[in-house]
Structure formats: C-alpha cells, structure tokens
Amino acid sequence: MRVRVASHSGFCFGVKRAIKIAEKTLASSKGSKNIYSLGSIIHNPQVVGALSKKGLKVIKDIIDARSGTIIISSHGAPIEIVNKIKKKNLALVDATCPFVKNAHNIVKDLKSKGYDVIVIGDKKHPEVKALLSLTRTTPGPGSGRPGSGSGKKVAFVSQTTQSKDNYLRGIFDILKEDFSEARIFNTICSDTAQRQALAKKFLKECDVMMVVGGKDSANTRRLYQICRESGVDSHHIETEKEIKKKWFFKKRSCGVVSGASTPDEMVKKVTKKIKTLTKGR
Predict the structure, then answer these.
(1) Which sequence spans correspond to the domains of the chain?
(2) Are 39 and 94 a contacting pair, CB within 8 Å?
(3) Is the CATH number of domain 99-184 3.40.1010.20?
(4) Could you tell me the fold of the domain covering 13-95?
(5) What is the pLDDT of residues 162-175, one digit of tens each?
(6) Catalytic site residue 127?
(7) Tell me: the pLDDT tens digits for 190-203?
(8) What is the predicted pLDDT for the residue at 171?
(9) What's the predicted TM-score (pTM) here?
(10) What pLDDT sits at residue 281?
(11) What CATH number labels 2-10+191-277?
(12) Of the listed 127, 177, 205, 265, which one is catalytic?
C-alpha cells in the first residue's frame, strides 16, 4: 500500500508558541505549584498530559485559582474573564495565538465603527467565545442564528479554524436578508487553509484517509469533516493505537493529514503503524 503523508503537518506556529510559553513559565516558576492553564492550552490530550506532568494544572474556571499564575490558552479567553483574572491579582500569561489576536483586533475595530459583527464558528469553542465577548453580536450559522440586521451595517469574521466552504455558506445565508452595508474579513488561519487544501488533494488520489489529532481540536474535526463528506473512507484518530487493520482491506493508497496541535512524532507513529499493518501489499 502507498502511504502519503501531508508535507504540512505537525504543530502550527501558534501551537508551538503556546507550548514554549507554558514550558518557559513552568521553568521560571521556581517550584511553584500554582501554575494554571485556563482550559487546555492546546487541544491535544497527549501534549496537555505531558505539560501536566511538569506541573501545569488545567482549570475550567478561575474560581479554582486562588493565587499564582494563569496562562491563557492559544484559543484566547473572553474579555470579562481576562478582567476577572486581573482583579484577582493573579499573574496573567497570554499564550493566545497571534492569528487569533488579529481576529480580536478586527472585531474591536469594526465594533468601534458601528458594525454589527457576525462571528461564524462553533458556539462552544473557546476561540468563538472570546471573539463574541468583544461584541454584543450573536453567533452566526453553525453556532446560532443572529438577529435581523436589516438596515444595519454588518461585518463577518470567521473562527480561524473554519473551512472556507462553511464560512461562505454562512455568509450567503445571512446575506439573504437586507443590510445597508456588509463587509467580509478572511480571518481563517493560513495554516488551517493549507492543511485543508492538502487534504482535498489527497482525497483525489487516496481511497482511505487518516486524520490525526485531538478529538476536541476544531481544526482537526474540520479536516475530518472535509474528508468524510468527500465519500472517501476516513478515520479520525488521536494515536496509532486506534488504527485497525480492517480499514485497509482492498485499499491501495492511504493519505495521512494532521491537525495543527498534533506532534510530528505522533504523525510518524501513525505512518509506521499503517506501513506495518499493510506490509507486503
């Protein structure tokens, strides 16, 4: 069997940066046991587990941190949460991805100019929650229907890990209503776009696809959605231990793509396992 591995895989820039920030914070803590991550710093359980062993504690609410340092994850955090952290006199370390920060700045600028900003993304995702905190708008398609903007100026931004197809569908759906003005911003991360483009290329050449990444990772789930909707047999896995030999029965070519928070080492393990299971075919 031929195994094709995406040339663009492993950690993206924002994930690498967040991990380095966490490791540096832990190293400089001088043995402090109060280093917290507000939610998973990235959406990969293996990486989060490794950081936990080094002393990083994952919390869901800042009420669980009475003292010490809180690291904002790569996905960002709602502005009201950031303000609460500061009021509690907790040290704050911001590991928000610069591409996500750019989306924040766009939303703030648009809001200051009187636009109703519509965020298209997953309502429950921390990145979308952070974006929505910067405006009174409600989420767009995929995360809730916005209120009527008839006669108003509206602007669209996307969760950075959305697929372009989902973003465009959401925009077209809302533009069926009447607005005096509409502006569209491409806030989809270039890394995300590259991974999706490679997946689509493999789908034309492979008859089975492996999507490697955390089950909670939005960009990995998006890759899996693209693969699954193509009709090609596709499997979303976190580790090589989930791979089953029967997936490759009568298959000739396997494509391997990964989410932005998936370590290179895991991609290598998955590739090795596939080659072992299909050896001689």
Answers:
(1) 2-10+191-277, 13-95, 99-184
(2) no
(3) yes
(4) Rossmann fold (3.40.50)
(5) 989 999 999 998 88
(6) yes
(7) 999 999 999 999 99
(8) 93
(9) 0.84
(10) 64
(11) 3.40.1010.20
(12) 127
Q: How confident is the model at residue 80 (pLDDT cuts 50, 70, 90)?
A: very high
Q: How far apart are CA 231 and CA 229, in angstroms?
A: 5
Q: How far is CA 37 from the centre of its chain?
A: 16
Tokens of 63: 């009420």
Q: What is the 3-state secondary structure (H, E, C) of the chain?
A: CEEEECCCCCCCHHHHHHHHHHHHHHHCCCCCCCEEEECCCCCCHHHHHHHHHCCCEEECCHHHCCCCEEEECCCCCCHHHHHHHHHCCCEEEECCCHHHHHHHHHHHHHHHCCCEEEEECCCCCHHHHHHHCCCCCCCCCCCCCCCCCCCCEEEEEECCCCCHHHHHHHHHHHCCCCCCEEEECCCCCHHHHHHHHHHHHHHCCCCEEEEECCCCCHHHHHHHHHHHHCCCEEEEECCHHHCCHHHHCCCCEEEEEECCCCCHHHHHHHHHHHHHHCCCC
Domains 2-10+191-277 and 99-184 share a fold: yes
Tell me how long the chain is.
Answer: 281
As a whole number of angstroms, the distance between CA 99 and CA 79 comes to: 17
